[in-house]
Amino acid sequence: MERKVKARGDRLSDLPDGILLHILSMLWWDCKAVVRTSVLSQRWRFLWKSVPVSLDFESPNSYSEKDFIASTNRELYYWRSCQKIRRFRGSLFRYDNSYVKDVDLWVHFATKIANVEEFTLLFDSDNHPKYELPNFAYKNTLLMSLILINCELKPSGSSFGNQLCEADIFEPKDYQNENPDLRLEILAPHIKYFELLGFCDEIRLRNLASLVSAVLCSNFDYIVDEERNSEAENGYLKELLHSVANVEDLELGPWGIECLSILELKGWQSSPSSRKYLKLDTALEQSDVLGICSFLQSSPDLETLVIDWYNKKRRDLLSRYTNEDERIKRFKTHNYNCSLLHLKTIKIIDYDGPLSGNKSVLPLIEYLLKNATALEKFIIAAKFDGSDVSQDYVKMAQEFQSFPRSSPHAELSFRIDNL
Q: What are the φ and ψ backbone dihedral angles of 145, each rounded to 5 degrees?
C-alpha cells in the first residue's frame, strides 16, 4: 500500500518561542548573527529583538575615528528596538573634544535607553583632553559593572545605582576636584569586585559590605611637604584597608606595602581580616619585609600568598625613618607572632635578580617556611635573560630544598623561565 507523506513546513520554525530564543541566545558573542536570522522567515522576523545581546564597538587603529563613530551611531539607531542589551563596550583609540556629543550619545544609549548591566568605556590614548563622563550617567539604577579608562569624573552630588557590583577605575587622577574640602566617595553595598589604580588620594570607599575581591594598586598625588605627604599617605592607606577588611581576595601594590612598613615602625597593626587570598606586588626590598610580615599577622585565615615581582624604581621613604642595618636588626629581633595555620600555597613569581646573600628574599622565605604549618606548595618562579641559566639560580634551587620547614607536607620547587 502506498504511503502518503504529509508535507510539513520548517520544523525549526514550529518550535515554541522560548526554545527559539534559547537557541538564539547561544549566539551572544555575535549579536549581528542574531539579527541576520530575521531574514529566515516571517516567523523569525522579530525574534531577535527579545534575545539578550552584548554590543562591542572597538575602533581599529587603521580605521578613521570619524568613520567609526558615524558607523557606530547608525548601528545604535537600529539597536534601540532590542528589548534586552546586557553589555555595552565602547572603545576609541584617541579621544578629541569634537567627539563629545557622539560619546555622550553612546553613554546615554547604554545607561538610559538600553539600561545595560555592564558598561565599559575606554580610550587607548591617555593624552589630554579626556572625555568627561556626563552627570546623567551617575544616576543609572541598573548598572552592575562599570569600567572606565582614561575618563574624567566630575560628579555633582549624584551617585551610581545601588545595584553596582563591579567597578574598575583606571587613572583616577583624572577625577577633577576644584574644592579641596570635597572628596569622591564610593558607596556601593552590592559591589563585589573593585580595582583602584593610579593616583587616588581624593577617593574614599564607603559601605562595601558585599565586596569579595579588591585590587589596591594605587598611588598618591605628591605634595611639596614630604613629611606631611607621608602622614597623609599612611592615613589614606589605613582608610583603604579598613574599607576592604571583609574581602576574601586582596591585591596590594608597591605603594601600599611601603606605607605598611612605615606604619609598622610606628607601632601600627592592621586589624584582623578574613582574607584567604593575598597578592603583593613588590620588589621585595629589605624595607618591604617589615610591612609584609606585619600584614600577615592580620591574615590568620590566609590560604594563598602570591608575591609578584615589581622590578621598577620606587621611592625610599623608609630611609627617612631608619637605615638598612637597623631594619635588618629589627626583623631579626622583633617577634612577629604569626601562625599561618591555613596557608597552603606560596608563590613568588617573575623573580628577577640575584638570590645568594639577598637580605630580604631569603629571610622572608625562611620566615614563611617557619610559620606556615599547613603549607603544601612553595614555588619560586625566577626569570632570566639569555640562553645560560645563572649559576646563582642553580645554586639557590638546590639550597632552597634544605631550608627547614614546619609543615611536613610542604613541597618546595624552583622554576626558571627564560624571558
A: -135, 130
Set of cell numbers at residue 202: 581624593
Q: Which residues contact 344 (CB under 8 A, 6 or more apart)?
A: 303, 304, 372, 374, 375, 376, 377
Give residue 287's pLDDT.
Answer: 73
Residue 366 cell numbers, joined: 625562611
> 330 in helix, strand or coil?
helix
Distance CA 54, CA 361 (A): 46
Residue 277 is part of which domain span?
237-419
Structurally, the chain folds into a number of domains equal to 1
Residues 211, 196: Cα–Cα separation, whole Å = 13
Give strand ranges (E) for 243-397.
249-252, 277-282, 304-309, 345-351, 377-384
On whether residue 284 sits in a domain, the answer given is yes
Q: According to the model, what pLDDT value does residue 101 have?
A: 94
Residue found by looking up cell 555633582 in the block: 156
Nearest-10 Cα torsion for 319, 324, 329, 332:
100
| Gap between the Cα atoms of 106 and 87, Å rounded | 12
User: Which amino acid is residue 116, in one-letter code?
Assistant: V
Tell me the per-residue pLDDT of 200-209, one tens digit each, with 9 for 90 and over: 666 778 888 8
HSE of 178, CA atoms in CB hemisphere, 13 A: 3
Q: What is the CATH number of the domain that holds 242?
A: 3.80.10
Max CA separation in the chain (angstroms) = 104
Residue 208: what pLDDT?
84
Per residue in 90-140, pLDDT (tens digit) is 998 878 889 999 999 999 999 999 889 889 998 877 666 788 889 888 776
Q: Within a domain: residue 8?
A: no
Residue 383 counted as domain residue = yes
| Cα(369)–Cα(361) distance, integer angstroms | 12
- Give which of 69, 73, 84, 77 is closest to 31, Cα–Cα: 84
**What is the tens place of the pLDDT at every residue in 244-261?**
988 999 999 888 888 888
Q: What is the pLDDT of residues 369-415, one digit of tens each?
A: 988 999 999 998 887 665 555 677 777 778 788 888 999 999 988 88
Determine if the peptide bond prior to 272 is cis (ω within 30°): no
The answer to whether residue 131 sits within a structural domain is: no
Q: Which helix (H) or strand (E) holds 296?
A: helix 286-297
The torsion angles phi and psi of 343, rounded to 5 degrees, stand at -75, 115
**Distance, CA of 316 to CA of 190 (rounded, Å):** 38
Q: How many residues does the chain have?
A: 419
